[in-house]
Amino acid sequence: MMHIIIFEDILASQLFPATIGKAAFSINVGSYSLIDLAMRFSGSVEVLVRPYLRSKVNFDYPGLWSIDRGERLDTVLVLNARVVPHVVMLCKLRRMIEGGQVGVVSDERGIACAVFNRQNPLPAGNLGVSQLSGIIADMNLPQLDINIPMMEYAHDIVRFQQLIMNDNLADRISGGDYREVADGVFVAGESPLGQFCATDTRSGPIIFEAGVSVGHCSCFRGPVYVGANSRINEMTSLKDAVTLCHTTKVGGEVEAAIIEAYSNKQHHGFLGHSYLGSWINLGAGTCNSDLKNTYGEVVMEYSNRKVKTGMQFVGCFIGDYAKTAINTSIFTGKTIGACSMAYGFVTTNVPSFVNYARSFGQVTETSIETLVQTQARMFARRGVIQRPCDVQLLKDIYEMTKHERQLASEPLSL
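^ that's the sequence the OP posted. Answer follows.
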């Protein structure tokens, strides 16, 4: 038996806007999140997250270990929440642990992983991240011979999606209850494919979970994963590493992108090399650019700091509850914060909680009261109950992002 601790370090916020409203271990990459895979290890799972996320995380993952559930078990595995959820890497790590190896994987970016046993016990009670890091440092553990990549910025989500997706889908196929309805096309339940649909699995498999519906004349080029109860509208194109989480609605063209649960991109328009959080709605005709006119490396801006991505194709990264109006155009490598509404041309990064119509000369703040009401209406449409922790999370994000909402004097950034 094993006790697993997944912790968010100070760099978890560097993954904004993906981690504004969710823990880093909840981000889906290649169809899995880190906590999905950690739950497979026999034993208990404990998480250390940013304070404002604790209540929501405890509601969303009711089986998590807490101090009233007893002592931590003999073998302890510590994972950074930013670790890439690559099933092959985690299986290798599990074999090392079962073989009795102890050690740490760390560098200047922090601790990625640590494994120790009863000879190095943890103190009873709740732990803080700094306390846990200090304990691990004092153990002087040897370095484990395994590469454990971590995500540092939002664009890394798309980078690793393309690298690990085939491995993760192969794992799903080997352990899932699927029927192969065509070469490399796997379905849970009845085939959802409408008339005149085309599939191409030469570069990776295609998986449809239960409850998926697919409109006529749609095209799929693997690897592609479509989560349960999702709807794919007619004449949709999904290709080259696409993850759709459960209960999404998608139309138009999507390439190398991740769309988290309960988000909608129902209409025509292009979404490429991008990440959408949960409860997002893209208006008809919304498109993003994922390639510079110079065909050069995309440079992102995070917290007013330029970061080279090392990537030629980088799209947009949108936080939970954000929306776009019809025919919105999002420039290459831009971010849109949580709970914002974008209109027209998105030429700069968009803060959280704003109505962004900068191309029309208007940027205004959205009130928290409006967003709480909007959240209630969105939840009701999907049969989801609005909990006190959901409302409090919006209020906490609003306060936490106040410093972002000073946009009017910024220069145009192309």
